[in-house]
Specification:
The complex is a heterodimer of chains A (366) and B (293).
Chain A lengths: L3 E10 L2 E11 L4 E5 L6 H9 L6 E6 L2 E2 L10 E4 L11 H11 L4 H14 L15 H14 L4 E5 L7 H18 L2 E6 L2 H7 L2 E6 L2 E6 L1 H6 L4 H6 L6 E10 L2 E6 L2 E5 L14 E6 L4 E3 L11 E10 L3 E8 L2 E8 L9 E6 L4 E5 L9
Parallel strand pairs in A: 3-8, 3-9, 6-7, 7-8
Antiparallel strand pairs in A: 1-2, 1-4, 4-5, 9-10, 11-12, 11-14, 12-13, 14-20, 15-19, 16-17, 16-19, 17-18
Helix pairs in contact in A: 2-3, 2-4, 3-4
Chain B lengths: L2 H49 L20 H9 L2 H32 L5 H11 L8 H10 L6 H26 L2 H10 L3 H12 L1 H17 L2 H6 L8 H7 L8 H23 L14
């Protein structure tokens, strides 16, 4: 197993800089998920670590060894590709043993390692099949098996579940989590799916436009998003954003927008003179928009809203509310039992409220 | 409308649909049969001529096997001429040309398909443009080149001339095919421990057999049937390919049509064998299952 270090990584595609001085350290045995929207540079970063993409600037270390100019096969990594990338002219067994055969490993060892990986992934009965005779989930398992057989220092997963249907993706997600518990290897996993990121990661790296936005545990990035982008990207349904201005009045901070005015508790934002006139965005998760129920101890004063649409999701219900020009999404217990157009009293939970500076987009609240 | 009336209307519609389908199939098959007749007739005619006693080219007899059919023309061709030698010359030149041509084209096409380098686009267009020049125009430069190399009347001279002339087509065919093979397969091979060349030989080439077969067949048939370049480069009867050899049977006053026809039949056999053997490689869908489809 190994540590991985990215130091000032830059990647240019002609005039377009897709990675802008990325610094990241990954510890031994850590499961790190790099997540971000399409084109944010996450796959490029992974491919640079694998040696499949040239590095325009910066250094990459695996276990303190500089690997910038090392051939992919010498980096002791294994990669699971988004599109499986199984060798179509080889059987499952040949696919899995390919790397060992290249190394001229003893036949006994090859057989044992393939059998072990097949056992872990329940591929025993499929070893003599060709890739075209397998289902999508089985192909992905073979791709993972091919990686396991190599016994690499670092496993790289490049959006391995994005080609599977929702049910299979869920199953494979659990399989990968189990696999990590069993192998306890260093894993770097790239995805654009925040559910995968939240459920699998020991640490999440959130990227946007070639820059790391935040690194932290899933709960950290959910509870304390570093900036507006992270706040909007992590969490489903997406966080409500309300734009307004801060005023410091009588020892507390007041948030004012055309449709809503709130006195913010000092626990959230201390009454500091520097906040006077500051343009901010208030962030509240739909779960923290308390609709139609008793305001909690740490809730804002109530205000009226109109129910526009409700969506029953099973045990939860999404309420699309409107107050003045402001639209809010609230997630409440199912069977809210109000028809569209009815008045709904609403308050916002201060405990999980976030204040972001509109100019820097950084979080300024506690 | 009653249920019976609806059923009757449905049956009538189905019958009309069947009739339409039948007519369509009949027309397609008629067309195919006509094309087959046009293609097969000359072959049958030559076969018939090769079996005729004497050297009669024209006959009012329409029978495929003529009266008094004999293999004498075949025997005479094999015993009284250098036909076997010509056949051997053609075979050596053609097989060498095909292997060299396909080897050069497969690697060149890989470079064009996978790497970025200056002049890549221009190079591809240049290759394509050479195919637009009539073959006759290339005879003089080829003649000068082979003469300067001192390779007149040699196998090597012929092999160089043929390999070079069919290279552009083969490169284009193979490049087009390589482009359809996902890059992630090579990348997986690189991570697994092959070099770039290793990934080409172990992954790309085995998956490219349909395109390689087509390139091989093209090289083979072009070299096998070529006459003009051979006419210019080869001058001793013993070095002749069969195309030149058969032409020798045509005299100023008399042409041995029986032997000519027998030779024509015999030279189709190697091409037929290569076609039949290659057909098993001309299968599509080799990359099925490798990546998400």
């Amino acid at each position: 197993m190994a540590t991985v270090k990215f130091a000032g990584i830059v990647k240019n595609f002609k005039d377009n800089q897709v990675l802008k001085k990325v610094d990241l350290e990954i510890k031994d045995h850590e499961f790190v998920v790099i997540v971000g929207p399409s084109g944010c540079g996450k796959t490029t970063l992974l491919r640079m670590l694998a040696g499949l993409e040239e590095i325009s600037g910066g250094e990459i270390y695996i276990d303190d060894t500089l690997v910038n100019h090392l051939h992919p096969s010498k980096r002791q990594i294994a990669m699971v590709f988004q599109d499986y990338a199984l060798y179509p002219h080889m059987t499952v067994e040949e696919n899995m043993s390919f790397s060992l055969r290249l190394k001229n490993a003893p036949k006994k060892e090859i057989k044992a390692r393939v059998a072990e990986a097949a056992n872990i992934l329940q591929l025993g009965k499929l070893l003599h099949r060709m890739p075209k005779q397998l289902s999508g989930g089985q192909r992905q398992r073979v791709a993972i098996g091919r990686a396991i057989v190599r016994q690499p220092k670092v496993f790289l997963f490049d959006e391995p579940l994005s080609n599977l249907d929702a049910k299979l993706r869920e199953e494979m997600r659990v399989e990968i989590a189990k696999l990590y518990q069993r192998l306890h290897s260093t894993i770097i996993y790239v995805t654009h799916d925040q559910v995968e990121a939240m459920t699998l990661a020991g640490r999440i790296v959130i990227m946007n436009q070639g820059v790391i936005q935040q690194v932290g545990t899933p709960i950290e990035v959910y509870r304390k998003p570093a900036n507006l982008f992270v706040a909007g990207f992590i969490g489903s349904p997406t966080m409500n954003f309300i734009e307004g201005t801060l005023r410091v009045e009588k020892g507390h901070v007041r948030f004012s927008s055309p449709s809503l005015s709130l006195d913010l508790p000092s626990k959230l934002l201390p009454a500091d003179g520097s906040h006077e006139g500051r343009e901010v965005t208030l962030g509240v998760r739909p779960d923290d928009v308390c609709a139609g129920r008793e305001a909690g101890k740490n809730c804002s004063q109530k205000f009226d809203s109109v129910l526009e649409v409700s969506e029953l999701l099973g045990h939860r219900e999404n309420l699309y509310l409107k107050t003045g020009d402001l639209r809010l999404l609230a997630t409440v217990e199912a069977f809210f039992n109000q028809s569209p157009g009815s008045k709904v009293p609403v308050c916002l939970n201060f405990d999980n409220m976030h204040v972001f500076d509109r100019e820097t987009q950084a979080r300024i609240s506690a | 409308m009653t249920t019976d009336a609806i059923r009757a209307a449905g049956a009538e519609q189905a019958a009309a649909h069947r009739r339409k389908k039948l007519i369509k199939y009949a027309l397609i098959h008629l067309g195919i049969i006509a094309f087959v007749c046009v293609c097969v007739y000359p072959l049958l005619r030559i076969f018939s001529v090769s079996l005729r006693p004497g050297d009669k080219l024209v006959s009012t007899d329409l029978a495929l096997i003529p009266d008094g059919a004999t293999f004498r023309s075949y025997w005479s061709l094999l015993t009284s001429t250098h036909f076997l030698r010509w056949l051997w010359n053609s075979l050596v030149i053609t097989v060498a040309t095909s292997f060299i041509g396909v080897s050069l084209a497969s690697t060149a096409a890989y470079a064009f398909s996978r790497f970025s380098f200056g002049g890549k686009k221009a190079g591809l267009i240049l290759l394509l443009s050479t195919q637009m020049i009539p073959a006759g125009m290339l005879i003089l430069p080829l003649f000068l080149m082979i003469m300067k190399l001192g390779l007149m009347n040699t196998y090597l001279g012929m092999i160089i001339a043929y390999s070079v002339s069919s290279l552009p087509f083969s490169i284009w065919i193979l490049k087009g095919y390589y482009d359809t093979i996902p890059r992630s397969l090579e990348e997986a091979a690189l991570v697994d421990g092959t070099s770039q060349i290793g990934a080409f030989y172990r992954v790309i080439l085995p998956l490219s057999t349909p395109a390689l077969s087509i390139a091989f067949l093209f090289n083979f048939t072009t070299a096998w049937n070529e006459y003009l370049v051979a006419r210019v480069v080869l001058f001793s009867s013993k070095q002749y390919t069969w195309t030149l050899g058969l032409f020798e049977l045509q005299g100023q006053f008399i042409t041995q049509w029986g032997m000519f026809a027998a030779g024509s039949m015999l030279v189709t056999l190697p091409v037929l064998a290569v076609f039949l053997y290659s057909s098993k490689w001309l299968i599509s869908g080799l990359t099925l299952g490798s990546v998400k489809g």
